[in-house]
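To: structure desk
From: M.T.
Subject: fold request, one chain
Message: Could you run this one when you get a chance? Sequence is below, nothing fancy, just the single chain.
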Amino acid sequence: MSKKINWLDNCVIRSNYSISLCTTKKLYNQIIKSGKIERPFDWPESGAALHTFCCKRGQQLHVVCINAAFERTENEAKALLVHEATHMAQSIFEDMAEKKASPEFEAYAIQRLSLVLFDEYDRQTKKKKACTTKSK
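Reply: Done. Structure tokens follow.
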């Protein structure tokens, strides 16, 4: 398991927000101690949760918490991450005053945010992608 906070890329659209994923209570505590948030939030013992904070200078922090120690399949974990990515996209659209995002823009945003969360989840839980090579 990773021991440091990793603020993830948010390239769906360049904006004043940051994304992080916590898969352990230790990472959760590091975010609280970092001073970037004004108040602690609940750690999900079984499911997942998105916490959004507005900080100084209008920066928005999106912290997705998912307890990797909870027994679930990889697909169940990824489904929870897509669910939280959807809430994150909704929050970002609201911050942009985007009342009705086009279906394609919304789909791309959720796809990108999900992928960023998947990659970070794999990194934090040490799930390496299989490397396949073609043999001649």
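Reply (cont.): The chain has three helices and four strands. Let me know if you need anything else for the meeting.
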